[in-house]
Amino acid sequence: MALHLPRIPLSPVLAKLPPLHLKNPTDYNLAFGTLGLIILVLTAPHTGGWRLLRLGVIAPLCIGVFGYLILCTEDEHDFNQWGVATLMGSFIMRIWEFFIFFPPEENCHRLLPRSQVHPTPSSNGHLDAKKSDSSTHQPKKTDDEVLIPEPIPPPFTLAKFYWSFSLWFSYRGIGWNTTCPLSPSSRQHPYIRQSSRKHFAFVQMRKWIISYLVDDFFRSIRNIYSAQFFSGLPGAIPYTHLSQFERGLNSTAVVVRIYFSLVNSHIAMSIICVIIGGILGWETEMFAPWGWPPLFGDLGELWKYPGLSTLWSRTWQGYNRRWLYVLGWIGIGENILGLTHTGISSHPTIPPVPKSQTLSNGNGASSPSNPSGQITPSHPLPTSPLPPIDPHPNSPRSIRRKMSTRLMVQNLIKSFITFLLSGLSHDIGSLALILKNHRHQEIYLSDVLRLTPFFIVQPFALAFEALIKTHWRTWKANHHPTWSKHREGRGGERGNEPGWLVLTERLVGFIWTWTWLGYTARFFVEGTAQLGAFRRDGGRELFWTFWGGVIWGKWYI
Question: Which residue stretches does the UniProt record annotate as biased composition, category Pro residues (predicted)?
Answer without folding.
Answer: 379-394
